[in-house]
Amino acid sequence: MNYVEEYREHLREQLAGGIEALGLEWPLKTAEAFRILWEWLGYDTGARGRKYLDYCIQIRHMEPPEKVGARLAWTAENVLDFAMILEDLRYWRPGFHDAKKTCFELQADAERMQVEPETWRDLRSLSAFEIMERMVATGDEVEFEQLAAALEVHIPTSVPPDSPIWSRLAALSKAEDFAVRKALAESIADEIGKEHRNDDEN
Length: 202
Hints:
By secondary structure, this protein is mainly α. The chain folds into 2 domains: 3-89; 99-201, no CATH class. The chain is built from 10 helices and 2 strands; from the N terminus they run αααββααααααα. 22% of the residues are buried.
Protein backbone atom coordinates (compact mmCIF):
# COMPACT_ATOMS: atom_id res chain seq x y z
CA MET A 1 0.00 0.00 0.00
CA ASN A 2 1.49 3.35 -1.04
CA TYR A 3 1.16 6.66 0.82
CA VAL A 4 -1.90 7.79 -1.15
CA GLU A 5 -3.71 4.49 -0.62
CA GLU A 6 -2.80 4.54 3.07
CA TYR A 7 -4.22 8.04 3.51
CA ARG A 8 -7.40 7.11 1.65
CA GLU A 9 -7.91 4.20 4.06
CA HIS A 10 -7.35 6.57 6.96
CA LEU A 11 -10.08 8.82 5.59
CA ARG A 12 -12.33 5.79 5.11
CA GLU A 13 -12.09 4.99 8.83
CA GLN A 14 -12.84 8.61 9.75
CA LEU A 15 -15.76 8.68 7.32
CA ALA A 16 -17.32 5.58 8.87
CA GLY A 17 -17.14 7.20 12.29
CA GLY A 18 -18.67 10.40 10.95
CA ILE A 19 -21.59 8.59 9.32
CA GLU A 20 -22.44 6.96 12.63
CA ALA A 21 -21.90 10.07 14.76
CA LEU A 22 -23.98 12.31 12.50
CA GLY A 23 -26.74 9.74 12.07
CA LEU A 24 -26.44 9.60 8.27
CA GLU A 25 -27.15 6.68 5.95
CA TRP A 26 -25.77 5.70 2.55
CA PRO A 27 -26.26 6.88 -0.10
CA LEU A 28 -25.88 10.52 0.87
CA LYS A 29 -27.49 13.55 -0.68
CA THR A 30 -25.04 16.17 -1.96
CA ALA A 31 -25.75 18.42 1.04
CA GLU A 32 -25.03 15.51 3.40
CA ALA A 33 -21.81 14.62 1.55
CA PHE A 34 -20.63 18.21 1.79
CA ARG A 35 -21.64 18.34 5.44
CA ILE A 36 -19.55 15.34 6.41
CA LEU A 37 -16.59 16.57 4.33
CA TRP A 38 -16.83 19.94 6.09
CA GLU A 39 -17.76 18.96 9.63
CA TRP A 40 -16.06 15.62 10.11
CA LEU A 41 -13.17 15.41 7.65
CA GLY A 42 -12.28 19.11 7.83
CA TYR A 43 -12.33 20.00 4.12
CA ASP A 44 -13.44 23.35 2.76
CA THR A 45 -16.65 22.58 0.92
CA GLY A 46 -17.73 26.20 0.95
CA ALA A 47 -18.18 28.22 -2.23
CA ARG A 48 -14.92 27.18 -3.87
CA GLY A 49 -15.38 23.51 -2.98
CA ARG A 50 -18.84 23.41 -4.50
CA LYS A 51 -17.65 25.10 -7.70
CA TYR A 52 -14.74 22.70 -7.95
CA LEU A 53 -17.03 19.66 -7.72
CA ASP A 54 -18.83 20.74 -10.90
CA TYR A 55 -15.48 21.41 -12.57
CA CYS A 56 -14.02 18.02 -11.55
CA ILE A 57 -17.03 16.21 -12.95
CA GLN A 58 -16.99 18.28 -16.13
CA ILE A 59 -13.35 17.49 -16.92
CA ARG A 60 -13.77 13.89 -15.71
CA HIS A 61 -11.31 14.32 -12.84
CA MET A 62 -13.72 12.18 -10.85
CA GLU A 63 -16.68 9.99 -11.64
CA PRO A 64 -19.94 11.71 -10.69
CA PRO A 65 -22.17 10.02 -8.13
CA GLU A 66 -25.04 8.13 -9.71
CA LYS A 67 -28.39 9.87 -9.94
CA VAL A 68 -31.44 8.60 -8.09
CA GLY A 69 -34.34 10.53 -9.53
CA ALA A 70 -33.25 14.15 -9.76
CA ARG A 71 -30.50 14.05 -7.14
CA LEU A 72 -27.01 12.63 -6.81
CA ALA A 73 -26.60 9.60 -4.54
CA TRP A 74 -23.14 9.67 -2.95
CA THR A 75 -21.44 6.41 -1.99
CA ALA A 76 -18.45 6.20 0.33
CA GLU A 77 -16.17 5.93 -2.71
CA ASN A 78 -17.64 9.13 -4.18
CA VAL A 79 -17.02 11.01 -0.92
CA LEU A 80 -13.48 9.64 -0.69
CA ASP A 81 -12.76 10.54 -4.32
CA PHE A 82 -13.72 14.15 -3.72
CA ALA A 83 -11.96 14.24 -0.35
CA MET A 84 -8.72 13.16 -1.99
CA ILE A 85 -9.09 15.92 -4.59
CA LEU A 86 -9.66 18.49 -1.84
CA GLU A 87 -6.65 17.09 0.02
CA ASP A 88 -4.49 17.52 -3.08
CA LEU A 89 -5.74 21.10 -3.44
CA ARG A 90 -5.06 21.78 0.28
CA TYR A 91 -8.67 22.90 0.70
CA TRP A 92 -8.64 22.56 4.49
CA ARG A 93 -10.85 24.30 7.03
CA PRO A 94 -9.33 26.54 9.71
CA GLY A 95 -8.55 24.41 12.75
CA PHE A 96 -8.29 21.17 10.76
CA HIS A 97 -5.22 19.50 9.21
CA ASP A 98 -3.03 22.12 10.91
CA ALA A 99 0.01 19.82 11.07
CA LYS A 100 0.15 19.84 7.25
CA LYS A 101 -0.18 23.60 6.84
CA THR A 102 2.60 26.05 6.14
CA CYS A 103 3.08 29.13 8.32
CA PHE A 104 1.41 31.13 5.54
CA GLU A 105 -1.67 28.91 5.57
CA LEU A 106 -1.93 29.09 9.37
CA GLN A 107 -1.64 32.88 9.21
CA ALA A 108 -4.35 32.97 6.52
CA ASP A 109 -6.60 30.89 8.80
CA ALA A 110 -6.11 33.36 11.64
CA GLU A 111 -6.90 36.28 9.35
CA ARG A 112 -9.93 34.47 7.94
CA MET A 113 -11.25 34.05 11.49
CA GLN A 114 -10.33 37.70 12.18
CA VAL A 115 -8.16 36.99 15.23
CA GLU A 116 -4.48 37.27 16.09
CA PRO A 117 -2.52 33.99 15.72
CA GLU A 118 -1.89 33.78 19.50
CA THR A 119 -5.60 34.29 20.21
CA TRP A 120 -6.55 31.73 17.57
CA ARG A 121 -4.21 29.14 19.10
CA ASP A 122 -5.82 29.76 22.50
CA LEU A 123 -9.37 29.51 21.15
CA ARG A 124 -8.67 26.27 19.25
CA SER A 125 -7.69 24.60 22.52
CA LEU A 126 -11.15 25.17 24.03
CA SER A 127 -14.09 22.78 23.83
CA ALA A 128 -17.41 23.89 22.35
CA PHE A 129 -18.86 24.10 25.86
CA GLU A 130 -15.99 26.30 27.09
CA ILE A 131 -16.38 28.59 24.08
CA MET A 132 -20.10 28.95 24.74
CA GLU A 133 -19.45 29.75 28.41
CA ARG A 134 -17.12 32.56 27.35
CA MET A 135 -19.62 33.86 24.79
CA VAL A 136 -22.28 34.09 27.49
CA ALA A 137 -19.91 35.74 29.98
CA THR A 138 -18.37 38.38 27.72
CA GLY A 139 -19.80 41.83 27.17
CA ASP A 140 -17.19 42.67 24.53
CA GLU A 141 -18.55 42.44 20.98
CA VAL A 142 -15.10 41.85 19.43
CA GLU A 143 -14.35 38.97 21.79
CA PHE A 144 -17.85 37.58 21.17
CA GLU A 145 -17.25 37.51 17.40
CA GLN A 146 -13.87 35.84 17.86
CA LEU A 147 -15.48 33.17 20.01
CA ALA A 148 -18.27 32.71 17.47
CA ALA A 149 -15.65 32.11 14.77
CA ALA A 150 -13.87 29.54 16.94
CA LEU A 151 -17.18 27.82 17.68
CA GLU A 152 -17.55 27.03 13.98
CA VAL A 153 -14.51 24.75 14.23
CA HIS A 154 -15.62 22.91 17.37
CA ILE A 155 -19.38 22.59 17.25
CA PRO A 156 -19.85 19.97 14.46
CA THR A 157 -18.37 17.01 16.32
CA SER A 158 -20.04 18.03 19.57
CA VAL A 159 -23.68 18.25 18.50
CA PRO A 160 -25.94 15.36 17.39
CA PRO A 161 -27.72 15.91 14.05
CA ASP A 162 -31.21 16.07 15.58
CA SER A 163 -30.29 18.68 18.21
CA PRO A 164 -32.21 22.00 18.30
CA ILE A 165 -28.79 23.63 18.57
CA TRP A 166 -28.46 23.57 14.77
CA SER A 167 -31.42 25.90 14.18
CA ARG A 168 -30.19 28.23 16.92
CA LEU A 169 -26.70 28.29 15.40
CA ALA A 170 -28.23 29.19 12.04
CA ALA A 171 -30.17 32.02 13.71
CA LEU A 172 -26.98 33.15 15.49
CA SER A 173 -25.11 33.42 12.19
CA LYS A 174 -27.88 35.56 10.66
CA ALA A 175 -28.66 37.85 13.60
CA GLU A 176 -27.00 41.26 13.51
CA ASP A 177 -28.10 42.76 16.83
CA PHE A 178 -25.58 42.00 19.59
CA ALA A 179 -28.27 41.57 22.26
CA VAL A 180 -30.08 39.02 20.08
CA ARG A 181 -26.84 37.16 19.40
CA LYS A 182 -26.06 37.08 23.13
CA ALA A 183 -29.51 35.67 23.91
CA LEU A 184 -29.09 32.97 21.26
CA ALA A 185 -25.65 32.13 22.64
CA GLU A 186 -27.15 31.70 26.11
CA SER A 187 -29.84 29.33 24.79
CA ILE A 188 -27.24 27.31 22.87
CA ALA A 189 -25.02 27.13 25.97
CA ASP A 190 -27.98 25.86 28.01
CA GLU A 191 -28.68 23.18 25.42
CA ILE A 192 -25.03 22.10 25.23
CA GLY A 193 -25.01 21.95 29.04
CA LYS A 194 -28.03 19.63 28.99
CA GLU A 195 -26.34 17.33 26.49
CA HIS A 196 -23.16 17.30 28.57
CA ARG A 197 -25.16 16.32 31.64
CA ASN A 198 -26.97 13.60 29.69
CA ASP A 199 -23.62 12.24 28.48
CA ASP A 200 -22.32 12.18 32.06
CA GLU A 201 -25.43 10.33 33.26
CA ASN A 202 -25.13 7.76 30.47
